[in-house]
Write the structure tokens for this entry.
Amino acid sequence: MDDTDRRLIALLRHDGRMPVAKLAGALGLGRAAVASRMDRLRRDGTIEGFTVVLRDAAAPAPVRGIVMIELQGRLMPEVTASLDRMPEVRAIHTTAGRWGLICEIGTEDLAAFDDLLWRIERLRGVTRSETNLYLTTKRSAR
């Protein structure tokens, strides 16, 4: 991956639907060259796909936070599969440190958040967890 690929990815992160012609203009390349780069980045797995980022009003989850999960033995695949089936779990990260997994979660209210934590803590393979609620977002990746 070269600097032009990194600039292309930055543009796509800002607007994944930006037309190839506009990307080409921003990069100082021809449309065919940009299309070729995008195809290569998809083929080699650098770009896995494109997604939609919703406003909070479109996908309400005003109660958000992270859950750090300690795991028992080799049960990470089982726990991860269970977490993946919970729609309130927005992301699952493996870590190198005290916690085996860190999950980003979001629910509509505190009661649903509490219920979700109860379900996570009772999964086979979860030995302990710690939760932090998000209060405000000062900056996001977007």
Notes: The chain is about 40% helix and 20% strand.
